[in-house]
């Protein structure tokens, strides 16, 4: 599965675009949106356009599916996509706008 997220609020999943609107959820004043991660070791840093449920306010990211991340009890970062399932996030490259994810059932 190929997932690409852009700063403009677009996300491409296997060649299909979804689009968010910055003004609807992503806060214009990001002072309260501190960088977060599920753990301090080997866990991707979460920032705009994503947000970490339970650790950041929901206005710290885009309010559309694919931008809300969460942590498992084992401190793995999780991306849940409607109709596709839950995937663990291995890395996020904000510069190239790429997520590396894997299916925990295949690992």
Structure class = mainly beta
Total individual domains: 1
Overall number of strands: 8
The fraction of residues assigned to DSSP E strands is 25-35%
Assembly level: single chain
What's the story with the biggest beta sheet?
Answer: 5 strands, mixed
Protein name: RING-type E3 ubiquitin transferase
Main location: membrane
Membrane topology: Single-pass membrane protein
Keywords: Membrane, Metal-binding, Signal, Transferase, Transmembrane, Transmembrane helix, Ubl conjugation pathway, Zinc, Zinc-finger
Short structural description:
This protein is mainly beta and 107 residues long. The chain is 4% helix and 34% strand.
Question: What this model shows, in words?
Answer:
The protein is mostly beta strands and 107 residues long. It has one helix at residues 22-25; strands spanning 3-5, 10-13, 16-19, 51-52, 68-71, 77-81, 85-93, 98-102. It has one domain (3-26, 35-106). It has a five-stranded mixed beta sheet with strand order 4-5-6-7-8, with no helix packed on it. The chain has a three-stranded antiparallel beta sheet with strand order 1-2-3, with no helix packed on it. The protein is 4% helix and 34% strand. A hairpin with a 5-residue loop joins strand 5 and strand 6 (77-81).
